[in-house]
Structures are given as structure tokens and as C-alpha cells.
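Hello again,

I reread your note about wanting to compare the complex against the isolated chains. To keep things tidy I'm splitting this into two emails, and this first one only covers the full assembly. Below are the input lines as submitted, including protein chains and any nucleic acid or small-molecule components. They are followed by the predicted structure of everything together. The single-chain runs will come separately.
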Amino acid sequence: MRRITVLGATGSIGQNTLDVVSRHPDDFQVFALTAHSQVNAMAQLCLKHNPQYAVMGSQSAAAELKELVGQRISTQVIYGEQALAEVSSASEVNVVMAAIVGAAGLAPTLAAINAGKDVLLANKEALVMSGQLFIDHAQRSGAKIIPVDSEHNAIFQCLPQAAQQQVGTMALSEHGIQYLLLTGSGGPFRDLPINQLVEQTPNAACKHPNWSMGRKISVDSATMLNKGLEYIEARWLFNCSRDQLKVVIHPQSVIHSMVQYTDGSVLAQMGEPDMRTPIAHTLGYPERLDSGVAGLDFTQIAPLTFKQPEAPRYPCLQLAIDACWEGQWATTSLNAANEVAVAAFLKEQVGFTDIAKVCDSVLQSIQANEADSIETLIAIDKQARLTASKWLQEYAK
Ligand code: NAD
Ligand code: MG
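Full-complex prediction:
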């Protein structure tokens, strides 16, 4: 029996995780669930999974949750950042699903890493904003990082076992690997005339053709900054150099990513575009668990096609690739600028094509900086958010 904390339980990844967990009542016990403000969804999850702790983002949300679940279950309702760190590092916990969206996930995910837990990493922003530090902390504590993001999970599955034991430190060439190929669907605007991008609404951006996800990552998929963040995520998880990492558009999302070996072999992981597959893989690793996902019917899937991402359609992707090799300050800044820009876009305060403009402008204005401690990273993140907010204020005038 493994005890699990699910950070971001009410989100798309959180709910899918609990779906898989509930299929294996003899293998998993839910220790803690966390959510920011969605009290009703959290109440339902608590009633179903009866965790020892439920963590909310604020005192008022915690009070509302207590009111809703009342005496019916024994769950202790707590709130705030300290509580998040506690349920991530508690000695009772074996596994932490890190599925908070954005930079807010960094501190609790690091708490789990520092406590040496098995960390199932969905929260890519945490790794993007802390890179080498994140990997160093895991090295020091012995925490195991298993990637949940479908592309990284696919690559992980296609790696030799020895490399799977060296997340963050492996030498790809020593395992006979030439490069990793990240696939991406190209998002909902893949085939739209480029001059129509400017008028796209949040709802249009969130209508992903293949995957059902939270709103922030859906917008990131439409700009392909998601692939950019994933590029940076892959760089750290698989310790890649620039020529060991490539991106290709694969509209059908049947192949979830690939590994090119030096002998010419390519290993790909395939499946339905359903996050329960990679989630079940991380929960069961190295064993396989039933995820509730049906097998692929190769006679029914569309022909598999591939193409290069077009630079004018996806300026955010290039920004991210450049930032990746520029330095930690650049990726931390880009992530922060993007979070501010996407939030403003979702509130219809800026247009879709402004997201890239905000990110570019922030990257141009932030000074290159040593990012050698969590404190400096948080300061860079804050500075980038301020710069992005100023851009938005100017824009609103
Ligand atoms: P979501 O928006 O559906 O859910 C986010 C969760 O985080 C919710 O439980 C919410 O309560 C919590 N949260 C939000 N802000 C918070 C804050 N300030 N403090 C504490 N908790 C907060 O997001 P999602 O789509 O489930 O994505 C979660 C993470 O997984 C993201 O980093 C995303 O990039 C990554 N991811 C998601 C998918 C997917 O299919 N949804 C795939 C790959 C990776
Ligand atoms: Mg992904």
C-alpha cells in the first residue's frame, strides 16, 4: 500500500490521477488532496477518497470546505503554503503527484523532492523555473522524478532501464541515443490563416483538437509555448545538449514522442490521447496498471503525419528554445511573463498574439543574472511578472 498526496487534485491531471488511483484500492491510499479555491469540486473528492488532509489556498476556502464536508468524514482541512509543503513532505507519504499549475507548484514540489519522495512530475513550470537546482535537490535527497507530461513520459518509456534510473543526470550518447524527438499537435490554430490569429478568443484557444486539459496549458498549446516549456523540461529531465533535442508537429497525437538511437532505430510510445495512460505508468512504475484507457485501434486512426513547426505561427516556441540555451534567468523570466500574459488573455484583457509580444519584451528587458539559489529564482520570477504587468498597463492605455 502506497500513500499518495495529490497536489492540484481538482485540476485535469489531479482528477485523472484520482480516477486511476480509485481503480487500485489495494495499492494506494490517499493521504492528502490539495486545491486552490474550487471548494465544491474538492468537497466531492474528499467525500469519495476520504484523505487524511485536505489543503485549500485560503482560510475562507478551508472554512467553506469544512462547512460542506462537516462531520461526514474525518479529513482535517488546513490551508496555505506551509500546509502544502507539509503534506508533500510528511513521513507517511511515499508518492506525490505534482499537478498544481504554474509557478505556485514550485515550493510544494521542491518540498516533496527534498523529502526524498517519488515525485510524479506534471507541473512542468516548476522544473522550467528552477532547472539545475531542481535536479540537484533530487540528487541530494535521492528523490525519484518520474515524468507525467505525456511527451516526457513517452521518452522515459523509450529509454533503456539504466537511463531511467538517472533522470536529470544521464548521458544520452552513452546509452546509444542520438536525439529525442518531442511531438506536438500544433494546437487548435495549426491550420488557421496566420492573419486570423490576432482575433482568436480564449474559448477558441482552449478547444484543443486532441487533449482535454486545464485552461492555462490549453492556451500554451495554442501558442506552442507549451512545447517550448516541454523543450526546457526535456533538457533538464534527460540532460540534453542542443543537438540532442528536436520538435516535430504530429497533428494526430498518436505518437507521444520518440527516441532516435545511433543505429537508426527509433522508439516511439503510442496510445490514445488520454493522460490516464502516462499517469498510470508513473503510478505503477516499473509495473503496469490498468488505467481505464482503451487500446489503440490501428485500423481506425487517421494516417500519421509530421511537419516542421512554422516560425511565424509559433513565435513563442522559438523564444523558449532560445531561452533554454541562454540561461536559467531566461527560462524563469519567460515562464513568469507567460503566466501573466496568459492570465490576461483568459480575462480578455489582451489579444492572443500579444502573449508572444509580452514574453519577448520581458526577455529583452531582463538582465542576465546568476540564478544559483531558490531565492534568486523567485526574485527573477517576481521581476519578470512586474515587467510583464507594466507592459500590460501600457497596452491598456
Ligand atoms: P488545471 O488548471 O486543470 O488544475 C490546476 C490545479 O492547481 C487545480 O487543482 C488548482 O486548484 C491548483 N492551483 C491553481 N493555482 C494554484 C495556486 N496558486 N496554489 C495552489 N494550487 C493551485 O491544470 P492541469 O491542466 O491539471 O495542469 C496541471 C499541471 O500539469 C500544469 O503544470 C500543466 O502544465 C501540467 N500538465 C497538464 C496536462 C493536462 O493534460 N492537463 C498534461 C501535461 C502536463
Ligand atoms: Mg505535454
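For quick reference: The mean pLDDT is 97.

B.
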